[in-house]
Amino acid sequence: MNLSETSPPFPAPSPRLAVGMIVFEGFELLDVFGPLEMLGLLRERVSITILAEQIGPVRSSAGPVVLAERTLADPGQLDVLLVPGGMGTRREVNNPGFLASLRTVAGATPHVASICTGSALLARAGLLDQRRATTNKRSYQWATSQGLAVNWVSTARWVEDGKFFTSSGVSAGMDMALGLIAKLFDQATADGVARVAEYEWNPEKSRDPFAAINGLAP
């Protein structure tokens, strides 16, 4: 495939925006690769690193394995930190070492975004206290129980509060990623990425159709 077919024709900044995606055993595939596809289409403007507690292979909940390139203890300088969800979050909310590393890396990163139940990890680490946030609507009760001081928004597709972006479940991460691109670059860049991806972007962040389906909205 010709590169011009997959990359929006936007000039590259110097240096490129550094994005780190955390993975852990049992992460959700689309939580990771949906947002990374959107950001990765800006390959001349964005660099992506996969992070985990240890360098090496990390298995997703669906089976495929990804390779973590750097550790959470040594993530390098990041501009954006992404935190996915998945069944593995049920284990990691009780992993003090992981939560401490997440707290440190997120504290040092200018923009932090979670997908799906990744917000439960941010909440358990105390990073979302007194902030507005959302999460996966099917797992809403469990996820929100991880942060009782969080102002959870049950009907949102994604929420922005200060440097934190949090999205609803799975596919919502792509909508949020485009919203993040619009914030970090501009609306034209986000629209261009959606066109190249042939993705029908839902930019209405305050409304998640799956909230009503899961009994969280009228």
Strand order of the largest sheet: 5-2-1-6-7-11-10
Query: What's the gyration radius in Å?
Result: 16 Å
Q: Roughly what is the average pLDDT, rounded to an integer?
A: 94
Net shape = globular
Instruction: Give helix % range.
Output: 25-40%
Low-confidence stretches: none
Termini separation: 46 Å
The number of helical segments is 8
Description:
- By secondary structure, the chain is α/β, with parallel strands linked by helices.
- The chain is built from 8 helices and 11 strands.
- The chain has helices at 29-40, 89-92, 96-108, 118-124, 140-144, 172-184, 187-196, 209-213; strands at 17-22, 46-52, 56-59, 65-68, 70-71, 80-83, 111-114, 132-133, 151-152, 158-161, 164-167.
- It has a 7-stranded mixed β-sheet with strand order 5-2-1-6-7-11-10, sandwiched between helices.
- A hairpin with a 5-residue loop joins strand 3 (56-59) and strand 4 (65-68).
- It is globular, with a radius of gyration of 16 Å.
